[in-house]
Amino acid sequence: MACKRGALIVLEGVDKAGKTTQCQKLVQALRRKGHPAEMMRFPDRTTTIGKMISAYLENQSELSGQTVHLLFSANRWELVPLIKKKLEQGTTLVVDRYAFSGVAFTSAKPGFSLHWCKQPDVGLPKPDLVLFLQLSPAEAALRGHFGMERYEKSSFQCAVQQQFKHLMEDETVNWKVIDASMNVEDVHKDITEHSLNAINIAQNLPLGELWQ
Ligand code: FDM
């Protein structure tokens, strides 16, 4: 008998919300409970496309908004065969950022519609659960200064937060909003509960396609 598939779980949120820490803690907790789990992150800066994205983010290269948007999307598409293989083998994937960051960040730039931004990612493996770590810009600012990368400015992050709000109106995606202002352990507990539930449901369902 074929094994039950793993779940595709995505963590999204603005900078400083604690996504990376929570992804790592979730993978460890799932493994302890006997669920094979692995972490992935986007952008994946290790591939050729990822290196172009990384140079852009570090202000070492200039690309048009359209170009970098398509590179971010291509960086996801190049990993789709691996994502599908892992899920089919029964491994749950915990993903730090996905197409939602792609759309929220580009559509926060002047002249980019949500509709245009979504198109390149239509048909990607659809997450079984998207956890949005909610943190107000004021609380994010209390967690320290932004780094030196291109998008790490509070005015831009506010615009990104607005775009995430629009994306969360889409009920075809299983969004769960998590209050990221709680302490690390309470956030972790919430996230783990939602994830275990999603793993249970996903094992009996086929993997969906995003935004179609
Ligand atoms: N980002 C991330 C995008 O603009 N589009 C995308 O598709 C993705 C996945 O890249 F500012 C932005 C979000 C962030 C930057 O992300 C790098 P990390 O998580 O800081 O590496």
Automatic annotation (TrEMBL):
GO terms for molecular function: ATP binding; dTMP kinase activity; nucleoside diphosphate kinase activity. Keywords: ATP-binding, Kinase, Nucleotide biosynthesis, Nucleotide-binding, Transferase. It is an enzyme of class 2 (transferase). PROSITE patterns: THYMIDYLATE_KINASE. SUPFAM superfamilies: P-loop containing nucleoside triphosphate hydrolases. Its EC number is 2.7.4.9. The keyword Nucleotide-binding applies. GO terms for cellular component: cytosol; mitochondrion; nucleus. One of its GO terms (biological process) is dTTP biosynthetic process. Pathway: Pyrimidine metabolism; dTTP biosynthesis. The keyword Kinase applies. It catalyses: dTMP + ATP = dTDP + ADP. It comes from the Eukaryota. PANTHER family: THYMIDYLATE KINASE. This is Thymidylate kinase. It comes from Takifugu rubripes. The gene is LOC101076531.
